[in-house]
Amino acid sequence: MDSYEHAILLRGDSNAEARDAAVQLEREIFLRGYYKAFALGSGPCRHCQQCDTNGPCKHPYKARPAMEASGIDVFQTARSNGFPIDVVTSHEQQGDYYGLVLIE
Predict the structure, then answer these.
(1) Does 89 map to a domain?
(2) What percent of the chain has pLDDT over 70?
(3) E strands within 1-104?
(4) How far apart (Å, rounded) are the C-alpha atoms in residues 55 and 89?
């Protein structure tokens, strides 16, 4: 990750919205010549009911690793950039969802 100089942090109303927006932005940036553009989501991938680890990913154009799985502190990243984020303590509470696009 140390080869990336810029990042775009996105906030969405759901995990899927934030991740999908990051993936779409990654594609647009890639097509403009930034071939190392790389999107990350937050939280687990929800494209499949259960991940089939014995075969290739069924959604390679949509699935991206989570920021947390890459060692990124999502809470600190959001807060350092002026975004709200809180621990969800009940099913009724709305969460804060983020995506990230890294650009060289």
Answers:
(1) yes
(2) 100
(3) 6-12, 38-40, 97-103
(4) 35
Q: What is the pTM of this model?
A: 0.87
Q: Is 1 contained in some domain?
A: no
Lowest mean pLDDT among 8-17, 29-38, 44-53: 44-53
* pLDDT class of 54 with cuts at 50, 70, 90: very high
CA distance 31 to 13: 26
Q: Is residue 23 part of a domain?
A: yes
The domain in which residue 41 lies consists of 6-103
Residue 82 in tokens: 């002026």
Per the structure, how many domains does the chain have? 1
d(CA 22, CA 20): 5
Secondary structure (3-state) at 41: strand
